[in-house]
Amino acid sequence: MRLLFNIKFLMYIFIASVGFSSPSFGLDVNKAAVAPTMLEAFELGREALKLGDPQSASTALEYAADQGHILAQWKLGHMYVKGEGVTQDRRKAFHYFQTIADSYADVPPSSKIASIVSDSFIQMGVILLEGIPEQNIKANPPRGMNLITHAGSYFGNADAQYTIGKVYAEGQESISKNSKKAVRWLRLAARNNHSHAQAYLGQMLVMSYTQASLQHEGMMWLEVANQTQGTKNPWIKSVYEEAKQVVSVNALKTASIKAKNWIDQKIK
Predict the structure, then answer these.
(1) Are 241 and 205 in contact (CB under 8 A)?
(2) Most buried of 79, 139, 216, 244, CB within 10 angstroms?
(3) Candidates 1.25.40.10, 2.30.29.30, 1.50.10.10, 3.30.70.1060; correct CATH number of 84-186?
(4) pLDDT confidence tier of residue 266, bands split at 50, 70 and 90
(5) Non-local CB neighbours of 29 within 8 Å, separated by 6+ positions
(6) Distance CA 1, CA 68 (A)
(7) Is residue 188 over pLDDT 90?
(8) pLDDT of residue 267
(9) Dist. CA 82–CA 235, nearest whole Å
(10) How many C-beta atoms lie closer than 10 Å to residue 85's C-beta?
(11) Where exactly does CATH 1.25.40.10 map onto the chain?
(12) Does 1 score more than 80 pLDDT?
């Protein structure tokens, strides 16, 4: 506790020196002689989160976000989606993600910020898929899918590819089920080492198709997911065990060999 107090006290001195505003510290940036830079504000916000002070963190991050700090905008978006340290407000979350998407939509996929930008497209898309009923915002699945598709195709984001595959596999309001599209997108995510996509695709191919080659492929993906994440993820373990009861012993052996080869080549 004393160490925490000392760290917070040092933060107080630093914030006071740059004139930063925070309800926890009783400072007013508007009355400060020298305002902090967006980088200083972001670092303060990050440290406040580490100290378990989300109120100060959100204040600092909002200041940095208003100055255009992309990591602050992204972090605040997730905080408002989940209601972590702030009152849950998905409309405000959408605003932060949209700010990132509008500013950096065409950055190269190899860019250092590509993962943040592509995730912002995903988060916007997911919000639009569901809508925000508590704020009277209707769902817009087609637009949501377009945003997520941009993340999955242009940026090659595996989370986006997995999300698209699930939507096509299960269907949603105004988006019909389409197994071919589902398998295509899930394969992309699986090849990008997305363990949930590997397990979901594997379960789909084993349980929903009778063609031997597809079942064997499905069991291979389940083997990969189970060998890499089965001990950490009960759902992956359960769908793997379920699928094992459907395929032949020879299919299991073949899948195990192929999975080992995949892991050796793509993961290890």
Answers:
(1) no
(2) 79
(3) 1.25.40.10
(4) confident
(5) 19, 20, 21, 35, 36, 63
(6) 35
(7) yes
(8) 77
(9) 23
(10) 18
(11) 84-186
(12) no
